Amino acid sequence: MLSSLDWSALAAALLAGVLLDALLGEVSRLHPLVGFGRLSNAIEARLNQSAAGPMRFARGLLAWALAVLPPVVLTAWVLTRSMPPAAQIALHAILLYFCIGLRSLRDHMLPIGHALLAGDLAAARALTARIVSRDTQHASESDLAKAATESMLENGNDAVFGTLFWFAVAGGPGALLFRLANTLDAMWGYRSERFNLFGRSAARIDDALNFLPARLTAISYALLAPGAAGTRRALACWRQQAPAWDSPNAGPVMSSGAGALGLQLGGAASYGGEIELRPPLGTGSPALAADIPRAWRLVRNTTWLWLAAMVAIAYGAHHA
């Protein structure tokens, strides 16, 4: 572990940070990521202009470094200063709390299922539009359930497991590095005229940071599938379907998760008024409203699995 805390202290900080997230949820006002987003927009507006080719890529890399490295280096420096162990644990826990999004994932996704089960399609469409970029104005129940389930599975990795992985590697600064990099990928990692070159470094760095967490997430989804048959199905979907996806990390996560749930995801989706035919994910029946809570339980149970594994490793390391 690369932080200034030993395994047992980091285990305490890990549990405290996840507990804070479960109790408090996402900060409603003055969330640090909101300030980070504004800073990143200002940097992008300043640097993403009047350049082409390699120079535009270089400017994007510089923008990434200016946005991400100062807060990460500053927090790492603060945490190496002499302070009581309890204060260090508290700071690591607070950083994890601000970076992890398990409670937020539940609070954004489950209301979609509730609205669909209540027959309120208009509310379900509005709620889904807040979390996905695809068109929802004319989406059916199955379209909305599919969008929410896919988002639950993918963001389980992006908002929860990737953060936990990098927290285990480098404590609070590691979690912060991952979350800021993932945020910039969401802001700049598009293949549009504006961001194709400028945002390419943000996308590639996020891919690199996510490579191991995504595969550990895919393995976890498969292990927690119902029965040995579910595990075999999830692993088969991962092996056969993930290579067809452009994203090297979303493919394994979503294909394994869809296979674990026994659902058929992927396929056609509307973006900007045009139908995009995406590769298939999973196998089985199309997603329905009741499958959204099932996807949540898979993410929640995977979180408990990771916490148990990390605490067990911490205990073993402490008593070695």
From TrEMBL:
<feature type="transmembrane region" description="Helical">
    <location>
        <begin position="61"/>
        <end position="79"/>
    </location>
</feature>
<comment type="pathway">
    <text>Cofactor biosynthesis; adenosylcobalamin biosynthesis.</text>
</comment>
<feature type="transmembrane region" description="Helical">
    <location>
        <begin position="298"/>
        <end position="317"/>
    </location>
</feature>
<dbReference type="Pfam" id="PF03186">
    <property type="entry name" value="CobD_Cbib"/>
</dbReference>
<feature type="transmembrane region" description="Helical">
    <location>
        <begin position="86"/>
        <end position="105"/>
    </location>
</feature>
<comment type="function">
    <text>Converts cobyric acid to cobinamide by the addition of aminopropanol on the F carboxylic group.</text>
</comment>
<comment type="similarity">
    <text>Belongs to the CobD/CbiB family.</text>
</comment>
<dbReference type="GO" id="GO:0009236">
    <property type="term" value="P:cobalamin biosynthetic process"/>
</dbReference>
<keyword id="KW-1003">Cell membrane</keyword>
<dbReference type="GO" id="GO:0015420">
    <property type="term" value="F:ABC-type vitamin B12 transporter activity"/>
</dbReference>
<keyword id="KW-0472">Membrane</keyword>
<keyword id="KW-0169">Cobalamin biosynthesis</keyword>
<keyword id="KW-1133">Transmembrane helix</keyword>
<protein>
    <recommendedName>
        <fullName>Cobalamin biosynthesis protein CobD</fullName>
    </recommendedName>
</protein>
<feature type="transmembrane region" description="Helical">
    <location>
        <begin position="159"/>
        <end position="181"/>
    </location>
</feature>
<dbReference type="GO" id="GO:0005886">
    <property type="term" value="C:plasma membrane"/>
</dbReference>
<keyword id="KW-0812">Transmembrane</keyword>
<dbReference type="GO" id="GO:0048472">
    <property type="term" value="F:threonine-phosphate decarboxylase activity"/>
</dbReference>
<dbReference type="InterPro" id="IPR004485">
    <property type="entry name" value="Cobalamin_biosynth_CobD/CbiB"/>
</dbReference>
